[in-house]
DNA sequence: TTGTTAAATAATAACGATTATCATTAACAG
DNA sequence: CTGTTAATGATAATCGTTATTATTTAACAA
C-alpha cells in the first residue's frame, strides 16, 4: 500500500505535481477499493469519511489527473456515469470486464488475451495499438445457475 | 435501402410497434450515414433537414427503441455523448473500432476476431457471452505517416 | 361516418453528471 | 517575512438525457 502510494507520488513529482493531502486521501480510497468500479461520486463519499473537508470538484480534478498519469483508467459501462479503475500493478494493458446483463455484476480478467488480435490489427489494418477496451456482456456463473434452478422448479410444477 | 427499412418495419411490427413517419425518417438518416457514428443530436439535426417538425425527444425515444430491438448499438467513445451505430446487415456480433488518439478518426473492423477469446472466457470463467465491445486506441495509418514526415523534416533542419 | 381508445409525438421542464469560475488557502522560493 | 504560483472548496453554469404533459394520430368498433 505505502509502496504504491510512494510510486504514485514519484509519478506526480516527475510531472511537477504535488501529492497533496486531498490527493493522497483519494488515492488511498482507490487502493482500498481496488476490486470495485467507483464513480466520482462514490469516491467523493468515501474520501469524505476520512477527510470531510474535501470538495467534490477536487475529487474530479484528482481523478482527471490520475487518468492523465495512467494511474487509473476511466471507463464507461453504459449507465450514465464514468467509473475509475486503478491499473493493476505492473500491468502492461488495461484489463477486461465481464458485465452480467442479469444482475449487473462486473468481473475482471487480468490475462491479456488480445495479443494475437492486436498483431492482426497492426499488420492488417496498419493501426498502432496503444491501449484497448474490451467488455463482454452476458450471463455470469451465478445467474446461469439461478436460471437452471428456476427452470427445473418450473418443471416440477407441471 | 428499401429492403432494410422493410426488414426493420417487420421487426417493429413483431413487437407491435409502428413505423411512424418520424421513426422512418430517423432510420433513413441512420442508413444514409452508416459509416458515421452519430450522436442523438447529430441524428436530430439530420432528420430535421427532411422533417423539420420532429422533436428531439422523439429522436431519443426512437434511438432507444432501435437499441432495444438491436437494430442499432449504443456506443460510447469517452467523449461525453452516446453514439448510435447501425448493426451491419446479417452480422452476428457488434463490430470493433479503432480510435486514433491523434486525429480522433474512427475505423471499423467487421471481422469477428474474438471467437477464440470468447471460447476461453466461456470455458475458463464460466461466463456466457452474449455481446461484446472492443475498441482499440492508438495511431492510425495517416497519423503514423505524418509522424514519420515530421521527424524527417526535423532531421533536415539540423 | 363517428366516437373511443391507446400509442406516439412536440414542446419544454427537470434532472444529474461534469466542468467552469472565483475567492481563499497552502506551499514554497527568494 | 513576502511575493508567487498551485491547489482547493463552494457553487454556478453547462449540457446530454429523461420526464412530464397536452396534443395529435392511428386503429378500430359501433
Ligand atoms: Mn476493472
Ligand atoms: Mn461502428
Ligand atoms: Zn449475474
Ligand atoms: Zn489519426
From TrEMBL, chains A, B:
Q: Where does Zn(2+) bind?
A: 100, 103, 140, 143
Record's superkingdom? Bacteria
The record ties this protein, via SUPFAM superfamilies, to:
Winged helix' DNA-binding domain (SSF46785)
GO MF term (any one)? zinc ion binding
Per the record, the GO terms for biological process are: negative regulation of DNA-templated transcription; regulation of secondary metabolite biosynthetic process
| Cofactor note as given | Binds 1 zinc ion per subunit.
Query: Quick check: keyword Oxidoreductase in the entry?
Result: no
Tell me which cofactor or cofactors this protein depends on: Zn(2+); Mn(2+); Fe(2+)
Q: Which UniProt keywords apply?
A: DNA-binding, Iron, Metal-binding, Repressor, Transcription, Transcription regulation, Zinc
Residues annotated for Fe cation binding in this entry? 132
Transcription in keyword set = yes
Which PANTHER family does the protein's record reference?
Answer: FERRIC UPTAKE REGULATION PROTEIN, ZINC UPTAKE REGULATION PROTEIN
Family in the record:
Belongs to the Fur family.
Entry protein name? Transcriptional repressor
According to its UniProt entry, this protein's organism is Halobacillus litoralis
Amino acid at each position: 500500500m505505502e509502496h504504491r502510494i510512494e510510486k504514485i507520488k514519484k509519478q506526480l513529482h516527475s510531472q511537477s505535481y504535488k501529492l497533496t493531502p486531498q490527493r493522497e486521501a483519494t488515492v488511498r480510497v482507490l487502493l482500498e477499493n481496488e476490486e470495485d468500479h467507483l464513480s466520482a461520486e462514490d469516491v467523493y463519499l468515501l474520501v469524505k469519511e476520512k477527510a470531510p473537508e474535501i470538495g467534490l470538484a477536487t475529487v474530479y480534478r484528482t481523478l482527471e489527473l490520475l487518468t492523465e498519469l495512467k494511474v487509473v483508467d476511466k471507463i464507461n459501462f453504459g449507465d450514465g456515469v464514468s467509473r475509475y479503475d486503478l491499473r493493476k500493478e505492473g500491468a502492461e494493458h488495461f484489463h477486461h470486464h465481464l458485465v452480467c446483463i442479469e444482475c449487473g455484476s462486473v468481473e475482471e480478467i487480468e490475462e491479456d488475451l488480445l495479443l494475437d488480435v492486436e498483431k492482426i490489427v497492426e499488420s492488417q489494418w496498419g493501426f498502432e495499438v496503444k491501449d484497448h477496451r474490451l467488455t463482454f456482456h452476458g450471463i455470469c456463473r451465478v445467474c446461469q445457475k439461478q436460471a437452471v434452478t428456476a427452470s427445473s422448479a418450473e418443471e416440477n410444477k407441471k
